[in-house]
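wait is this the right file?? whatever heres the structure
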């Protein structure tokens, strides 16, 4: 498990032994899993538990803004 980004009270984590498609796990008050390149190439929510709607929107916005960096991190850890 590697924390690849921190912002707005969230930790964006990539598990080194995880599976495709490329995604991050977001931890804050609750947790979410977000595919880095879903339909149309945009980030896509996979699941969320215990996350307020506003926080989820904020996490999705951050992933969209950091998409290129996060994909680069995924590739660095998964080849």
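ok assuming it is, sequence goes like this
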């Amino acid at each position: 498990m590697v924390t690849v980004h921190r912002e707005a009270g969230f930790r964006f984590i990539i598990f080194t032994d995880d599976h495709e498609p490329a995604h991050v796990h977001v931890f804050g008050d609750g947790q979410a899993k977000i595919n880095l390149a879903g339909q149309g190439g945009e980030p896509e929510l996979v699941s969320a538990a215990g996350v307020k709607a506003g926080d989820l929107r904020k996490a999705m916005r951050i992933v969209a803004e950091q998409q290129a960096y996060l994909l680069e991190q995924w590739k660095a850890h998964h080849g």
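The beta strands are 2-7, 10-14, 23-28, 30-35, 44-49. so i think its the right one actually
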